[in-house]
UniProtKB/TrEMBL annotation:
Range within the parent protein: 454 to 737 of 737
Signal peptide: none
Domain called EAL: residue spans: 24-274
Source organism (scientific name): Lichenibacterium ramalinae
Organism phylogeny: Bacteria, Pseudomonadati, Pseudomonadota, Alphaproteobacteria, Hyphomicrobiales
Highest taxon listed in the record's lineage: Bacteria
Listed name of the protein: EAL domain-containing protein
Length: 284
């Protein structure tokens, strides 16, 4: 519990410690129920090819519409799920829902999903993922899993083995939030990543801050020279998108192209034939 508090979640509890502990236990039991009811749902954010402007994939982002608290953000409930031993079942539930939804989208639309660092300590993870793919019939090649470098701190040998097993299923791997936290070039060298996601803190600052633009440029070059595709997160303006295009960054993700939306909004986006490009690639 102290760990979760330290990570800044549950700011909505301002009572004394006892009341707070009880309230968190209550919320945890609500979360457990929500996971088993498939009431924690994936939203999907467009990934756009910066060269063509086409939708090439979506990233699944967990959402918990709570009956009284409104939409609870993953920054709040993911740490609670990790603490309460719920992250495994939650991930399976989200992956199932995501694969079912994405199975009806065109074959070139990939589905990216986030893994929690804890999950790279779970020796059953590759089998769990294989099961979801078998159950849903979703092609492994269309699934991409995102991990942050905090997942690689600790038992790097185990993490590497699990990532290699997952990669061997045909699932692709992305290193998320690159440039923050524990960035180590060793990780890029040792681990079987397919793409590099450049953290939004650099991307968002590109226009105002030359240093950030230089860092993004260097990371795009580094990624490409290692054979990785590059994704810029947090693309909010056309100006940033233009700079990224100039650098040869492959894919953009951000409010400019669309916020995370429920599956039916993506259904609508990919289904309409002959619609104008701007309508196809902008969701929100
Ligand atoms: P992430 O994987 O780096 O996801 C990107 C975050 O940036 C998302 O926040 C997204 O809504 C937000 N974002 C996208 N475009 C923009 C933009 O243009 N501007 C700004 N300011 N933000 C943008 P979200 O949905 O709140 O998720 C936060 C984090 O929670 C994710 O970061 C991921 O680490 C974690 N998360 C979300 N869903 C899951 C999940 O199913 N499992 C696990 N383990 N973690 C998850
Ligand atoms: Mg991510
Ligand atoms: Mg990220
Ligand atoms: Mg992030």
């Amino acid at each position: 519990r102290a760990k979760a508090e330290g990570r800044g979640c549950f700011r909505f509890f301002e009572q004394g410690t006892d009341a707070r502990v009880r309230a968190m236990a209550q919320l945890e039991s609500e979360l457990r129920q929500a996971v088993s009811d498939e009431a924690v749902v994936p939203h999907f954010q467009p990934l756009i090819d910066l060269g063509t402007g086409h939708l090439v994939g979506v990233e699944m982002l967990a959402r918990w519409p709570h009956p009284t608290r409104g939409m609870v953000s993953p920054a709040e409930f993911i740490p609670l799920a990790e603490d309460g031993g719920l992250i495994g079942p939650m991930t399976v539930s989200l992956l199932r829902q995501g694969c079912r939804a994405a199975g009806s989208w065109p074959a070139h639309v990939t589905l990216a999903s986030n893994l929690s660092p804890m999950q790279l300590r779970d020796a059953n993870l590759p089998a769990t993922i294989a099961n979801v793919l078998a159950e849903t019939g979703f092609p492994a090649a269309r699934l991409e899993l995102e991990v942050t470098e905090s997942a690689l701190v600790g038992d790097l040998v185990l993490a590497r083995r699990l990532l290699e097993e997952i990669r061997a299923l045909g699932v692709r791997l992305a290193l998320d939030d690159f440039g923050t936290g524990y960035s180590s070039l060793r990780h890029l060298q040792l681990l079987p990543f397919d793409r590099l996601k450049i953290d939004q803190s650099f991307v968002g600052a590109m226009v105002a801050d030359k240093e950030s633009a230089k860092i993004v440029s260097a990371v795009v070059g580094l990624g490409h020279s290692l054979g990785l595709s590059t994704v810029a997160e947090g693309v909010e303006t056309e100006e940033v998108a233009a700079l990224l295009r100039g650098l040869g960054c492959d894919v953009g993700q951000g409010w400019l192209f669309g916020r995370p939306v429920p599956a039916h909004r993506i259904d609508a986006l990919v289904a309409v034939p002959g619609e104008k490009e701007t309508n196809r690639t902008r969701v929100a």
